[in-house]
Design a protein that fits this description.
InterPro entries: Uncharacterised_Ycf49 (IPR019634). Pfam families: DUF2499 (PF10693). By secondary structure, this protein is mainly alpha-helical. The protein folds into two domains: 4-68, no CATH class; 74-167. It has helices spanning 43-56, 74-101, 105-112, 114-128, 137-167, and strands spanning 4-10, 29-31, 38-40, 62-68. It has a two-stranded antiparallel sheet. Helix 2 runs antiparallel to helix 3 (105-112). The longest helix is centred in the last third of the chain and has 31 residues, at 137-167. The protein is elongated. 8% of the residues are buried.
């Protein structure tokens, strides 16, 4: 199994900074209001000031995300998902063209696209589960659906060609 990698999200600094510079060390001294010299802070004040500093200085805040090293990045997921959505839209548009134009062979092209959509779902599912070895059957299924889908698209394209030659 792949080793886990940590992704770090660093938040930007706030637009306003505190007027008094606060040390981030736990052994801090505080300024008592009305007194001109520093005095040792109590334990509760130290803890409260430490929490306040963590809030005021968000550079110290880090969000740890633990994902495997083979996890897809957000842009890669955007490409995968948008490709599937585009394919579904293309199938619907081809079907509508076949209905509105009266060329029924175009509907066959839409049906020919279905196995390739199944292959896309296999790929996205496999990646969603971080390419788990127990789901490697999805890789073989994707390959088979791609082969079948390419054949059905070829047959559908030939049928469109043949129907256009008959109508001309």
């Amino acid at each position: 199994m792949a080793a886990a990698a940590a992704a770090t999200l660093c938040l930007p600094r706030p637009c306003c900074t505190p007027k008094i510079p606060f040390p981030s060390d736990s052994r801090i001294s505080s300024y008592r209001i009305g007194a001109g010299k520093p005095q040792q802070a109590s334990t509760k004040a130290k803890a409260g000031l430490s929490l306040f500093l963590d809030f005021v200085e968000p550079a110290s805040l880090q969000l740890q995300l633990h994902e495997p090293s083979n996890a897809l990045s957000l842009p890669t997921w955007a490409v995968h998902v948008s490709s599937v959505v585009e394919w579904i839209i293309a199938m619907a548009l081809v079907w509508q063209y076949g209905e509105k134009s009266g060329y029924e062979a175009w509907k066959g092209l839409s049906w020919g696209m279905v196995p390739l959509l199944g292959g896309a779902f296999c790929a996205c599912t496999w990646h969603f589960f971080y390419n788990d070895e127990s789901l490697e059957v999805l890789v073989a299924l994707q390959a088979a659906l791609t082969l079948v889908g390419n054949a059905t698209m070829c047959i559908a394209a030939y049928r469109i060609y043949k129907s256009s030659r008959e109508s001309a």
